């Protein structure tokens, strides 16, 4: 059997961990279970990552990179504030519809990580990254459209991102595996509310 390097094994183990925990929950993600999911020895997990916390960190970093990349791609062609916000909402909807099991896993990992000093900084880095990205997009939109916002871009970003988090959590709590028309309406209203807030004090407010 050909030797598999740690660099090659790493993405395989991350994928196996995500598959297992998305199916059975974060608490099922022991190094033994993850090794069995991939069909390798438990020692392989420890050799590749060192500790379970290091593996969880890698899973979190992988998922956060996916989310950040998805947001960047969704707003790249937006020419107005509404287009940028709607593109983000559409990407959020698509992610919920296409990967509902990862949506639950993401919230589980966030909650789990906030109680772990070793992992909390990954969550904080994700939050800073998504907020910084939103602020950058909003600032550039304000500059490009030459239409000033009624509040700082950072406050508008917090409002919109908090709304997305709330809609996602509501879907999980109400037991919906997939977003439905009520989810779509909630996202549309969030976009409308954010645009209205942005231009509340501007001439020709929307």
Automatic annotation (TrEMBL):
Tagged with keyword Cell membrane: no
Entry keywords, A to Z: DNA-binding, Repressor, Transcription, Transcription regulation
Pfam families: TetR_C_6, TetR_N
Keyword Cell division: no
GO molecular function, one term: DNA-binding transcription factor activity
DNA-binding region location: 30-49
PROSITE patterns: HTH_TETR_2
Stretches assigned to the HTH tetR-type domain: 7-67
PANTHER family: HTH-TYPE TRANSCRIPTIONAL DUAL REGULATOR CECR, HTH-TYPE TRANSCRIPTIONAL REGULATOR RUTR
Name of the protein: HTH tetR-type domain-containing protein
């Amino acid at each position: 059997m050909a030797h598999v390097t740690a660099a090659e094994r790493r993405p395989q183990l991350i994928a196996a961990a995500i598959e297992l925990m998305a199916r059975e929950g974060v608490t099922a993600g022991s190094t033994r279970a993850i090794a069995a999911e991939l069909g390798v020895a438990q020692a392989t997990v420890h050799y590749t990552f060192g500790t379970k916390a290091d593996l969880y960190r890698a899973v979190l970093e992988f998922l956060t990179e996916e989310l950040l990349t998805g947001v960047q791609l969704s707003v790249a062609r937006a020419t107005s504030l509404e287009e940028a916000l709607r593109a983000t909402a559409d990407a959020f909807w698509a992610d919920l519809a296409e990967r509902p099991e990862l949506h639950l896993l993401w919230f589980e990992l966030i909650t789990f990580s906030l109680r772990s000093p070793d992992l909390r900084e990954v969550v904080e880095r994700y939050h800073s990254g998504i907020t910084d990205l939103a602020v950058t997009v909003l600032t550039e939109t304000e500059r490009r459209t030459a239409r000033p916002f009624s509040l700082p871009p950072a406050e508008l970003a917090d409002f919109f991102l908090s709304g997305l988090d709330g809609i996602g959590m509501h879907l999980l709590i109400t037991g919906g595996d997939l977003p439905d028309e009520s989810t779509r309406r909630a996202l549309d209203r969030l976009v409308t509310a954010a645009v209205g807030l942005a231009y509340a004090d501007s001439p020709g407010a929307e």
